[in-house]
Amino acid sequence: MIAQLWASFPFLAGRLLISESVLLLQFATDLACCLPTSMRLASTLRQSRETLSTQDKERHKSYGYQRAQTPEGVLTSLIPPMQFPHTERRKQKASAMSQEHDMDSLHVTKRQLKLLKTSPLVIQNKNSGFSNSSVFAASSSLSVSPLDSFSSSSGSALQGSWKFFSILEARKQLMKEICAKYKGSISKIITRSHVKHLYVEDKHKLLYCQVPKTGCSNWKRTLMVLAGKASNVQNIQHDTVHYGGHLKKLESFSQKEIMHRLETYKKFVFVREPFERIVSAYRDKLENPNDYYHNLFGKPIISKYRLNPSEEALRTGSGVMFKEFIQYLLDVHRPVGMDIHWDQVNQLCHPCLIHYDFIGKFENMGEESNFLLRLIGAPLSLTLPTFKDRNPGDERTSLEITKKYFSQLSMLERQRLYDFYYMDYLMFNYSKPFKDLY
Ligand SMILES: *[C@@H]1O[C@H](CO)[C@@H](O)[C@H](O)[C@H]1NC(C)=O
Ligand SMILES: *[C@@H]1O[C@H](CO)[C@@H](O)[C@H](O)[C@H]1NC(C)=O
């Protein structure tokens, strides 16, 4: 599985100079296979949900795939089905392996352990020639602990690259499993509308799926620097990032060029705990001043869900309550369409159709982003910035804040909202946010 990740980043694979390479590589494979301890856990969980899967499909029929009433299909033209020959083959092999192989691969000899601890990997960096970068030094820790601490420190944090390799592989593996399970309800043809949130960076051959509220402004700044559109990430204004037109969207290319990039570029996405993401979206777009959103969404929401709205509330669309926002989200007959800030990630980025090489998590944004930057051979001086563009005075939406907002909802509303984002919870392995959800 490690080999797969390197296959995804081929320039790395060829440049890995490892002492006693055979053993270490052997270990790499073993380490990757150790992972499923946690994956097994996930699959047990999923099995207990097995009975729910038909229900899930119903849920999607009723409101999961409720789309915005925007003329989305206008640009849509059919692109022939994509062929992923090796992905397909790998998928079969991998799932067969992950079932049986993990039992005996858990044996890690003391010698292997010692070797891992004492042999740093030496990587030839693409851009800066040889560098005995400690960035890729093998982790001295074997624990595959969940990545839940938010850390933006870049240097030392990258020590655990073994850990990262295996965690990233596990995420991709889980995605494959979920996609295989739900393949009946997933389109097999990539259309232009499937790639409309993908941004292109041709120099490093990258495709980034933008998910709002998961640090996308900072990633777009970084892409601008990678593309040579800016000299550093520090002084790029929010508006320049989003409206400057410096980054090309994949949908703006010809069909042939889209296909070529999808097949040969590294594709990545960052995701976030779904409930935290919508609380963050609500605070940003509806709670805080925002004429555009208050007009477009606030007005219809207030007029449909508030019992005795004041003249002023109806006129300005300001003051939408969290509960009203959720009523709108859960309404099959929404008075206004969905929006990218609260759309499900699987609807924005189509991870079953577009096979992402890297699925990062907002909860560990700094560490994972910088790990990715090193993987693609970005200049060592480039790290992801940590700007908070929107309402910088506000505290970042945290678990605590999320709980506060959710306490305003009924249990049924929470359950329905969980159902609404269920595929995101499943695909990106976020655990149930409240104990009383099923
Ligand atoms: C899923 O998350 C749990 C903890 O939340 C973690 O232990 C496990 O390794 C994760 N599984 C995958 C496949 O990422
Ligand atoms: C990398 O390390 C090796 C051995 O420790 C040394 O011989 C070599 O000069 C180093 N290369 C650089 C670029 O520091």
TrEMBL record:
Assigned EC number: 2.8.2.-
Membrane topology: Single-pass type II membrane protein
Signal peptide (residue range): 1-21
Cited Pfam families: Sulfotransfer_2 (PF03567)
GO BP, one annotated term: carbohydrate biosynthetic process
GO cellular component, one term: Golgi membrane
GO molecular function: sulfotransferase activity
Keyword Nucleotide-binding applies: no
Enzyme class, first EC level, given as a word: transferase
Annotated region (Disordered), positions in chain: 46-66
InterPro entries the UniProt entry points to: Carb_sulfotrans_8-10, Sulfotransferase
Compartment list: Golgi apparatus membrane
Keywords: Carbohydrate metabolism, Glycoprotein, Golgi apparatus, Membrane, Signal, Signal-anchor, Transferase, Transmembrane, Transmembrane helix
Recorded family membership: Belongs to the sulfotransferase 2 family.
Protein name listed in UniProt: Carbohydrate sulfotransferase
Organism: Oryzias sinensis
